[in-house]
Amino acid sequence: MKRLHVHVGVADLEHSIGFYSTLFAAEPSVVKPDYAKWMLDDPRVNFAISQRAAHGVEHLGIQVEDEAELAEVFARLQEADRPVIEEKETTCCYARSRKQWAADPQGVVWETFLTIGDSVDYGAGPAFAELRNEA
């Protein structure tokens, strides 16, 4: 079953953790010095905040649970006729993942990914300018 992913850049991590913990009635499942994540079932969302991204919504995504779902979503992105960046294995947000990135016609960046393990490093994402035709 797929899960919506939202990543928001924040100025004050501690205050933002307090706000979102109250909103979701749950503590984050992951907290790092610059990052926090809630894996919620109601609503079914992987909601992350960090001090690494520009303030506001940084990107949206679809998290899948297995390789078959990943292949299905990858195929749909390929049909969308937009630039795509594929990362066969990468580290981002303290997790190891397989990912594909695309931006909609307005420049909103979408990520599809399968998490394959944890990481002690935050890692990095691709340059979004390429997806938004800004390069």
UniProtKB/TrEMBL annotation:
GO biological process, one term: response to cadmium ion
All residue ranges annotated as the VOC domain in the record: 2-115
InterPro entries: ArsI/CadI-like, Cadmium-induced_rsp, Glyas_Bleomycin-R_OHBP_Dase, Glyas_Fos-R_dOase_dom, VOC_core
Pfam family, any one: Glyoxalase
Gene3D superfamilies: 2,3-Dihydroxybiphenyl 1,2-Dioxygenase, domain 1
PROSITE patterns reported in the protein's UniProt record: VOC
PANTHER family for this protein: CADMIUM-INDUCED PROTEIN CADI
NCBIfam families the record matches: ArsI_CadI_VOC
Name of protein: VOC family protein
Annotated organism of origin: Erythrobacter mangrovi
Taxonomic lineage of the native organism: Bacteria, Pseudomonadati, Pseudomonadota, Alphaproteobacteria, Sphingomonadales
